[in-house]
Design a protein that fits this description.
Blueprint: H1 2-23, H2 26-35, H3 47-63, H4 71-84, E1 90-96, E2 101-108, E3 111-113, H5 119-122, E4 124-128
Antiparallel strand pairs: 1-2, 1-4, 2-3
Helix pairs in contact: 1-3, 1-4, 3-4
């Protein structure tokens, strides 16, 4: 039951952020991420389990998404869900020059979450949310 509720929560957050990103501006999403309150505090020993369940729930939610899911959608939703649990995650946007591409991912204390660790070798960060937790 817990996995289902986490997946529903992930779908709601993902869908809401997709709408904001598509019809709003990412700057507004970044501002909102900075305002996400820590609703559920977790013990540091539970952080890895929380990260894993969040990534799995987002994977399930993305398969049921109403719109095509982009890396910025996933990174924003993952960051939001982790911040709700008191983990100071950040959205990172990076680019590579040749061939030109941009990508977004989530980091927690410099650790890549829900993406390939090698993403930092392929993309140079140009924007980090670094918003304080409320």
């Amino acid at each position: 039951m817990k996995a289902i509720s986490r997946s529903i929560e992930a779908w709601l957050v993902l869908t809401g952020l997709q709408v904001l990103i598509r019809w709003g501006r990412f700057a507004r999403v970044q501002a909102l991420l900075g305002e996400v309150p820590s609703v559920w505090k977790i013990a540091p020993s539970q952080a890895d389990d929380m990260i894993t369940t969040t990534v799995i729930a987002l994977g399930r939610a993305s398969r049921l998404a109403l719109m095509p899911v982009r890396c910025l959608d996933i990174a924003s939703a993952c960051t939001c869900l982790l911040r709700l649990r008191g983990l100071p995650a950040d959205v990172v946007i990076g680019v590579r020059a040749s061939p030109f591409a941009a990508h977004a991912w989530t980091e927690l204390h410099g650790r890549v979450i829900g993406d390939l660790v090698s993403v930092t070798d392929s993309y140079a960060p140009i924007n980090r949310s670094n918003a304080p937790l409320s």
